[in-house]
Amino acid sequence: MDLLERAEMRRTKMLASLDPDEQAARGQYFTPHQAARIIASLPRVPEGASVRVLDPGAGSGILTAAIADRLHHERPDLRIRVTVVEDDAVLHGALRETLEDVSQRTGATVRLVGRDFLRWALSTSEKFDLVIQNPPYAKLRSSSEEQTLLRASGIVVPNMYAAFLALGLRMLSDGGQQVAITPRSWMNGTYYSQFRHELVNAAGVDKIYTFESRSKVFKDTGVLQESIVVSMTKCHTPEYVTVFISRDHSSKSSHRTVAYDDVVTPDFIHVPATEEDAAAVTWMATHATQSLADLGLSVSTGRVVDFRSRDMLYKDYVPGAVPMLNASHLRGGVARHPIGSKKPEWFRADEERASKLLVPGGTYVLIKRFSAKEERRRVVAATWTSERPVAFDNKLNYIHESGHGMNPREARGLWIFLNSSQLDHYFRVFSGHTQVNATDLRHMRFPSHLQLQMLGGSAAGNQESIDATVDAVLSTVEVLA
Asked: Given Cys at both, which of 17, 376, 410, 479 links 452, Cβ 3.0 to 4.6 Å?
């Protein structure tokens, strides 16, 4: 067995001995050797005489084994100095065995720092040429000691993995590289906006590796996040980004080279892994140029949180009640009510509470907030019209005009656009989330008023006619200022 295969045996043995609850609490998801090999393949091999490597939250040391094995194979003369940081003493036995193996096989100098990486990183002035990591996925509570330390150092992040990325980048020397496997969620959305902007301002994205299947990358650890590998260089922005894609960590990958500005934008990061993805981004940028704000429209999240409003929700109609819509009412592009759901379908409250939770009668476009990557559609939209006020569940987003209903014909046009295959394909490139955030919708571009009017006046109904109508209208109708 080679160096990496032996490290994989230790990882598998160690994984079987861990307490799953403790592992989940720590956010530990140990990298399979196939994924470790992919991660280690992305950074450039250094040209100098030596390289300083950092592996934060090293676990059993499989990433260290993978990168040391590659560097030694491609540059036998390269002096490798490895620092691994791991505060879980339960893992130190397997980690030390891997480090000893790495040292014997590659001649690398190895060092184990048995401390919490966050506190160690904030207290040291050490610099590295290469950071390779699979950081913990645990959330950071706003009142936690870790969050306090990070904010005091100017790092604003909602999750431990983002903290590890930010700290890893800080510990790089200029021109140094960081490669990490993380959830894709940091690439767009409000929660990671400050972190994302600071990250791409400090370093340029060189390579991205994405997997079609979420569930197979960490199949023996139960991770379902959409994982992505990103390689970055500090203080250097390339002209192009190489984007790789494979079914999972054991499948053969394909790759393409994409202009940097087509991947990294001021607001989010696209991942156009295929020519079709790139065409979807180009088509949308060319034909849909208006933001919701440009159109005089807004998007909000439904106001009713069911567990906070139990005394106002009713399964059957009672005098004075108004419709209560949730995601289950959106079926086949239409909002149907009532449907005989097991959930409450009616809402009634006193005047004061109703004024805060109800939406005035009118026409709205509703969009489900949650979907799965593997579902047929990522964006599911429907229109709703009523003369009476209505209650929207907070698992729905709704598009409105200054808090009131919008023009019915434009609402239908917006419904057609949101349910088009063109929009759905673009959104999958645009967003790695399994939800459709209101912030994402605010950042997206939409057809003009004229285009929406023309879409809304069409007879489009089934998917084929929707797609043909959207293509015809957006490709031929000029946007009026």
From this structure: 410
Say if residue 239 is in the same domain as residue 306. no
Give residue-wise pLDDT tens across range 202-233: 999 999 998 765 445 555 455 545 789 999 99
Q: Give the burial class of 64: count Cβ atoms within 10 A of its Cβ; 0-12 exposed, 13-18 middle, 19 or more buried.
A: buried
Q: Which residues contact 377 (CB under 8 A, 6 or more apart)?
A: 371, 419, 424
Give the integer Cα–Cα distance in Å for 422 and 432: 17
Q: What is the pLDDT of residues 395-432, one digit of tens each?
A: 999 999 999 999 999 999 999 999 999 999 888 887 75
Residue 292 lies in a domain: no
Q: Which residue has the tokens 């209650």?
A: 391
Q: Is residue 246 part of a domain?
A: yes
Same domain? 194 vs 65: yes
Strand order in the sheet with 313-314: 313-314, 346-347, 322-325, 391-392
Across the range 105-112, mean pLDDT stands at 97
Residue found by looking up tokens 């109708």 in the block: 477
Assign 255 a pLDDT band (cuts: 50, 70, 90). confident
CA distances from 396 to 181, 425, 437 (A): 31, 21, 10
Q: How many residues does the chain have?
A: 481
For residue 318, the domain's CATH number is 3.90.220.20
Q: What is the pLDDT of residue 421?
A: 93
- pTM for the full predicted model: 0.74
